[in-house]
Amino acid sequence: MKEHDITFTVNGREHELTVESRTLLIHALRENLGYTGPNIGCESDRCGACTITVNNRAVKSCTMFAVQADGASITTIEGVGEDGEYHPLQETLHEEHGLQCGYCTPGMIMTAVDFLEHNPDPNREEIREALKGNLCRCTGYQNIVTAIDSAADKMHGVGQMEGDD
Ligand code: FES
Ligand code: FES
Question: Residue 73 forms beta bridges with which residues?
Answer without folding.
Answer: 9
